[in-house]
């Protein structure tokens, strides 16, 4: 029988036990005493974040509480309104229905009609323009994009006088599209679609062009690629663009106050401001009640479309 070989110094050296490196050691679980923040360290690193958050919440909640309190205050004056109402009454909400001199719901209907029409038309025009700028390469493309950017840099108040003169002339030929008409006001608001072109174009650029090429190989036309492939991928940005336009049209005051003068064609912003300006001390409760009624549907709409909004934000963070 052969005996086992005697280990040499070289063998012992090669079979030595290797100690694990400090990096390979298992770290203590989170929350162990070594990882807990002391009071002083927590105050230096995290306390200011909570402090800023609390101050921001208070700053945002105080105006909301004041408006809700004023809407529930039967007196409805500035001096008698507190953050927490002492007397709760729904008389201001009843006046929204029962006062014919202040057709609140007529103004609300005008606003919703204008907003919906503007949203639909703007999204249609903006999507087609953004698709052309994103997918096609043609002469004047860069100049067109720069022109859109330059136009967006000018405030709308610069064109107010020109629009007023233009629509006063249009009203003599086509009275339905002149001053003090909802169709004419809708045409004016449609001019704001230029800003949505840049926003939607950015999302078109994130979609790989290989999808278009694969569809064209299968015989799809540009319209089929647009409606069947690209448009379903852009639901989030379309929802965001639509919400931005919708809220912007509802809150528009400058152009609406200039072009809409009759009581029956006013929007909610112009009508409520006129009532408040007539007697601010006594109409504050009515104004606050109308603000609450208008704000609640918008809040619910944002909550319902929240997943699209979050999806649009995250989709724009990654290109390709």
From TrEMBL:
Membrane-spanning ranges: 50-68, 107-133, 145-170, 182-204, 225-250, 284-305
Region entry Disordered, spans: 1-35
Membrane topology: Multi-pass membrane protein
Source organism per UniProt: Serinibacter arcticus
GO biological process, any: maltodextrin transmembrane transport
InterPro entries on file: BP-dep_ABC_trans_perm (IPR050901), MetI-like (IPR000515), MetI-like_sf (IPR035906)
UniProt xrefs under PROSITE patterns: ABC_TM1 (PS50928)
Pfam family, one: BPD_transp_1
Alphabetic keyword roster: Cell membrane, Membrane, Sugar transport, Transmembrane, Transmembrane helix, Transport
The ABC transmembrane type-1 domain, residue ranges: 108-305
UniProt protein name: Maltose/maltodextrin ABC transporter, permease protein MalG
Low complexity composition-biased segments: 1-21
Keyword check for Cell membrane: yes
Classification lineage: Bacteria, Bacillati, Actinomycetota, Actinomycetes, Micrococcales
UniProt similarity note: Belongs to the binding-protein-dependent transport system permease family. MalFG subfamily.
GO molecular function: ABC-type maltose transporter activity
GO CC terms of this entry: plasma membrane
Subcellular location: Cell membrane
């Amino acid at each position: 029988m052969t005996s086992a070989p005697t280990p040499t110094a070289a063998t012992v050296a090669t079979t030595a036990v290797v100690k694990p490196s400090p990096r390979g050691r298992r770290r203590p679980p989170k929350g162990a005493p070594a990882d807990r923040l002391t009071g002083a360290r927590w105050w230096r690193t995290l306390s200011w974040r909570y402090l800023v958050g609390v101050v921001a919440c208070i700053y945002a909640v105080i105006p909301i509480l004041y408006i809700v309190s004023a809407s529930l205050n039967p007196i409805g004056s500035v001096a008698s309104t507190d953050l927490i109402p002492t007397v709760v009454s729904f008389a201001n909400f009843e006046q929204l229905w029962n006062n014919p001199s202040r057709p609140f719901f007529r103004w609300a209907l005008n606003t919703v009609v204008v907003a919906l029409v503007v949203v639909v038309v703007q999204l249609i025009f903006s999507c087609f323009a953004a698709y052309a700028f994103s997918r096609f390469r043609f002469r004047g493309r860069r100049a067109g994009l720069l022109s859109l950017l330059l136009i967006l840099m000018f405030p709308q108040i610069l064109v107010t006088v020109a629009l007023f003169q233009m629509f006063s002339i249009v009203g003599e030929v086509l009275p339905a599209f002149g001053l003090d008409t909802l169709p004419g006001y809708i045409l004016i608001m449609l001019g704001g679609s230029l800003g949505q072109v840049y926003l939607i174009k950015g999302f078109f650029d994130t979609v790989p062009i290989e999808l278009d090429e694969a569809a064209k190989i299968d015989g799809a036309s540009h319209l089929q690629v647009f409606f069947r492939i690209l448009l379903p991928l852009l639901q989030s940005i379309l929802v965001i663009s639509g919400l931005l336009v919708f809220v912007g049209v509802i809150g528009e005051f400058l152009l609406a106050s200039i072009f809409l003068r009759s009581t029956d064609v006013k929007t909610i912003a112009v009508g409520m401001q006129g009532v408040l300006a007539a007697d601010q001390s006594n109409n504050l409760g009515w104004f606050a009640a109308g603000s609450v009624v208008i704000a609640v549907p918008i809040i619910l709409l944002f909550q319902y479309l929240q997943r699209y909004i979050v999806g649009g934000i995250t989709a724009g963070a990654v290109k390709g």
